[in-house]
Design a protein that fits this description.
Layout: E1 6-7, E2 28-30, H1 33-47, E3 52-56, H2 61-69, E4 73-77, E5 79-82, E6 85-88, E7 98-102, E8 118-122, E9 137-141, E10 152-155, H3 168-188, H4 196-209, H5 218-225, H6 229-247, E11 265-268, H7 271-283, E12 286-287, H8 302-310, E13 311-314, H9 322-337
Parallel strand pairs: 1-12, 3-4, 3-7, 7-8, 8-9
Antiparallel strand pairs: 2-10, 5-6, 9-10, 11-13
Helix pairs in contact: 1-2, 3-4, 6-9
Amino acid sequence: MIRTELGSEFWDIPLSSQENALFPPHTAWYLSGRTALAALLSELCAEREVRTAALPSWCCHTMIKPFLDAGLAVSFYPVYLEQGTLHQDFAHCPPCDVTLVMDYFGYRRTAALPQDTVVIYDATHSIFSGIPEGAEHIFGSLRKWAGFLTGGYAFGPSGKALPAAEDAHAEAYTALRRRAMSEKYAYLIGKSEEKRHLRTFAEAEDLLEQGASGLAAKEDIAAARHLDTALLRQKRRENAVVLLEYVRNFAIFPALFPEDCPLFVPICVPAEKRDALRQYLVEQEIYCPVHWPVSALHRLTAQTRMIYETEVSLLCDQRYGAAEMHRIGQAVQAFLEGGTGI
């Protein structure tokens, strides 16, 4: 029996016989995006005096912690929705030595980078939609795009991002990820009745939370250079077009520009209904994440907290086609417009 659930972790990588041109020759490869960021910060702190950092208010706690671990004083510039438009307000932040910038979910909307600061660009969401001109210190992760075991990367103008130290936990982390992907595939094709993969993926994430670092798996480096970027972009863009026909009025990015390559199709719904929508989707075997949980490391205002409480990331990845997008869109529409929850 083939399972019909949608979402959760990947189990494969679309590959091409041709190398892509995504990554420069001096790219350094790491266990995770947070490990790559830590390496970039280590390089910068070795080169110059770095004491303060500005981060977007809308970000994952795993991007905040490396700055704190490096001994930097962190402040946040506002990222918020207003009248249906996402704003990144670089001006409302005190002068800082370094500033973290990102484009969200593969939609290139950063018009200009902040000035008079060293910009670290988080390309995790935008590696397939292009990096803004002027961004020099770049890092990211491929784990959310396809079935990479590791997939952290970093590159900068010097071409010498510091390698991570060898870590005894790195091998255990990689082994857990490999086993979890195999378990998930077995479950999806009906060879296993249990969702063992959920527990195994969680064990791997626990190792990262406990500080596991190190270098990327060699097979991931090879896969990254042969990733079928044309297929990935095409499928995700086609899927996003279908989804937007259902959810455009709730979408953070209602228009798809030529350079965009969607990681998800993010929507915002009333805060009091967001968790109910996610539960309704789970009941339809559709597993859509939110970005991101609020942690003790965040410093939010009522304005910047709202997006955390209202956002849902709808699946649009290359594992699926139009039929699955109609299924997701119809489920969301049934809840939002059909009286199921609102």
